[in-house]
């Protein structure tokens, strides 16, 4: 588990209104990044419920024209996270903002550039088919607005995951287009139009004779060299204050970053290889740099996203302790935005684990760890202390652990069911009591259950017989994932599972993953399903079965409603809890990027939680 520590804090409030609960009088969910104190060791986390970061790709620009540099982060599922700077020119303070950017799919990369010379940055991004999508900035004083103008801008074809840049290297007043070719050369398209009416012509695929490859500088390869190249991320900036643009190149196969300084002038470039190790130290690689003066001292600082698969230490802040003409970078943080990040594939489960009459949270992770977020506050005023060394830390259940808290043996305390990537569910009985959880492994394959991969348990009494039944989500490589139903046909202290249905979701949808949670979302007394998947969002299945009957594929009806948290990414895993004892259920949402998102319910709605109804 990683605490992303930054010296600047931020806050967030976002409102969501969902059609699903509007029928109950209007439902408003508020996303809150810092709703209650959350502590790791001695460190208080500033924005614990912002969500996690995997493969971040940052941009620094004043997007709202308030004189402060904002931070926008591209994420691997195609979302843009907009962190507005509400601090000062010397001390930035980041605050997440809900804007039209949240509805844009950037594919694998994005770039901002004022292509039409109207004084505001337009957005360019991957169309997901190799071409370039263009969103024109039509913002007004009333707010940001980006409108899709073209899905094949200028006929550019950069390929996937290959981040280009716009730059005026010839100082003719318009922006030309550059991108790194997988062979290590720099392709150049000259803007032969003007600042307000761009028109591009391909010029050379080997601009300034640049060739970036490990150990080779920008000399040509020979038979003794076997350079490796992959995707690239290039960025032009005047790093040394000599009024011409230098080039920085992140490469899939370079754990550091190439630097080419411009030894020419503002009219005629001469990009010359300086270093293949420009950063103070190596990162996970495929580095995406962004530059801006974040501390108001007149030189350019740097934020770098390491986008080569690392699920932690991947958003780095380098302060320029040199000068405008002689930069010298110091690493201040490897996790620039302060949040909690469990790496990848976070699965939360809520329950009163320590018997103090408030909700605690267990979190399963992609690495297999199970982490307890112990509520050391009260039922009215929660305070979470993230415990990485307690009894749950000793549980080893394989990768992609998905916990479910339930009193499985009816002895008055919560037990633990844990799904894992192998497709099985482990049963850890609590041999302590409601105040002292003492897990004992009973079986590594509860009920003989074995799905293809990634078993995700959700326990609930589905037929009103007083016994907890079990739903199991899965990962199916053939895109036929469903949710299995196991009926409990045993006794309260001797549960016995019997497979009732291999799929209770309607057929016809392509589903690689099913991550189920159970709750009475519409308040009609029946257990509904909310299911996360590989794609962004969740689907609510309304249960129309007779009360007391098991749900099946003919009575679980998918609803078109947009639920709170739908845009938080992929592999969304819900758990609900009345965290503030106001009589309604709030949401904790896990995600592929390893973070936890919190949505507070304003009003009353819904019954149940992931693990118990």
Keywords:
1 helix, 613 residues, Tachylectin-2, Chain A, mainly beta, 45 strands, disordered C terminus
Instruction: List how many beta strands DSSP finds.
Output: 45
**Which stretches of 5+ consecutive residues score pLDDT under 50?**
1-25, 214-226, 607-613
Cα separation of the termini: 29 Å
Report the structural category: mainly beta
How many helical elements?
1
Q: What's the CATH topology name of the largest domain?
A: Tachylectin-2, Chain A
Largest sheet: 6 strands, mixed
The CATH architecture name of the largest domain reads: 5 Propeller
Specify the CATH class of the largest domain: Mainly Beta
Strand order of the largest sheet: 5-4-30-29-28-27
The residue fraction in helices comes out at under 10%
User: What overall geometry do the principal axes of the alpha carbons give?
Assistant: elongated
Strand content: 35-45%
Q: How many domains make up the 3D coordinates?
A: 2
**CATH homologous superfamily (4th level) name of the largest domain:** Glycosyl hydrolase domain, family 43
